[in-house]
Amino acid sequence: MSWLALFLCMVIVYGIIPTVVIRQTGAGIYKRGKHTKAVALTFDDGPNPYYTPQLLDLLKKHGIKATFFLVGTKAKQYPQLVKRMHEDGHDIGLHNYRHISNWFIFPPFLQRGLRKSADVIEQITGERPIYYRPPWGHFNLCMWTVQTKYITVMWTAILGDWRERLGVATLVRRLKKSLKDGAIIVLHDSGETLGADKKAPEHMIQALQQFFEDEAAKNAQWVTISEMIDAQTNGQIRAI
């Protein structure tokens, strides 16, 4: 067997198969709320010095709290944005120290990266993150080591907003379609990761501006992940 074939076999066994199994079974992950009308907006890959401030302004304008899964190196580079997220009442979670697939990270390196990211965020906000979302939603055989320390949050809708060619109108339609009870919606406030278009967040923000004016969006109860989980536990959503 060639080295390439051996490598591919390792990726399939270590990464791809566990990802399929975990996504299909929901084992050890949180991927949908159970409270009527509760919807969580979540943002991955940031913070970004240009787009994240615009997004925070927009969320504040409409009184919406969201959840941000931050890349540790970016959080360290832009602490004022992380501080503002926290002061504005948003949840902050982890998205690895660098945006690397878990298919190619062994457990000690993943644990160290998450610990470094959590340290950075705690130093800025005074609170240690308890939520984690893996880049691209990729898992591996050893994810149980992460799930004992963090609540792993997935999604009900991932809308493809990292592609600039998707366009604002299509993204608005997808946002409306994804607006269901208990939904966890994924968007991205940075276009600097592998496979993303650098200016795609501009379309995302424009789409949200239109979407928030829609009657269905106005009637939704926008919550953070922690509020969604609390509602599931306590039976009601705190006033926000």
- The secondary structure category is alpha/beta
Helix content: 40-55%
Number of helices: 10
Mean pLDDT: 93
Give the biggest beta sheet: 6 strands, parallel
Low-confidence stretches: none
Distance between the termini: 59 Å
Order of helices and strands: HEEHEHHEHEHEEHEHHEH
Radius of gyration: 18 Å
Strands, count: 9
Q: Which geometry do the CA atoms define?
A: globular
Q: What fraction of residues sit in β-strands? A: 5-15%
List keywords for this structure.
single chain, 240 residues, alpha/beta, 6-stranded parallel beta sheet, 3-stranded parallel beta sheet, 10 helices, 9 strands, 46% helix, 13% strand, globular
Describe the protein's architecture and organization.
The chain has 240 residues and is α/β, with parallel strands linked by helices. The protein has ten helices and nine strands. The strands form two sheets. Strands 2, 3, 4, 7, 8 and 9 form a six-stranded parallel beta sheet that branches. A three-stranded parallel beta sheet has the order 1-6-5, with no helix packed on it. Helix 2 runs parallel beside helix 8 (200-211) and helix 7 crosses helix 8. It is globular. The termini are far apart. 39% of the residues are buried. The model has no long low-confidence stretch (mean pLDDT 93).
